Amino acid sequence: MPTTADFLTYTQWAGIFTLVCGLFSILGFIFKWGIRFRLVGITGFMGVLTGGLFALSLVPLTRTVIPGAVHFSLVYDNGGNQAVIVVPQEITASELDATLRQAASDLFSYGRLGGPDNYLTIRARTIIHPEPGVSKPLVLGQVKRSLAQRDDEEMAIEIYSDRLAQLPKS
Fold it and tell me: In sequence order, which residues have a C-beta less than 8 Å from that of residue 60 and are 6 or more positions away?
């Protein structure tokens, strides 16, 4: 994953190319080249691209990795205050705790609509098969986190140990 320093390097090269395109645009108007208006378009596009790369060089692109978290898939997200992830059936309580923390970190966004309580609730579920041909969704836990703070130290994590006991033993 590119770092902010990489994006700064890309910005410098794109800026140089933008200036070269601008120079060719000016020469195109002086010498009345047939492609002079296309050169203006290329210069404008390169200016926008350079500005975007510069913005990416200012914002750190980091992802928090929680040790012990297992892979999860997002199966429902209303874009506001509720989301559901699916986890494997072989998950333990400590892995579920770490996975809920990872999901809370990954799904945080200032653009979410929080509703009346301004909290994001993420539920973790899995599918069990109590008998052949029957599937049953089983919610294993949930986390509630603030939508106002990126680093929410007061996340409320609930793990339903009675439901974890229903998981098949491998």
Answer: 4
Q: Is the predicted pLDDT of residue 9 greater than 90, yes or no?
A: yes
Residue 49 has pLDDT above 90, yes or no: yes
Q: At what angle do helices 4-30 and 36-58 cross, to 10 degrees?
A: 160
Own/partner pairs, 42-45, CB within 8 angstroms, 24+ separation: 43/18
SS3 104: helix
- Sheet strand arrangement including 82-86: 73-77, 82-86, 119-131, 134-146, 156-159
Overall pTM > 0.85: no
Structural contact between residues 81 and 119, judged by C-beta atoms closer than 8 angstroms? yes
Q: Is a pLDDT exceeding 80 seen at residue 47? A: yes
Q: What tokens appear for 79 in the block? A: 């874009």
Establish how many alpha carbons lie within 13 A of residue 9's alpha carbon, considering only the half-sphere containing its beta carbon. Answer: 5
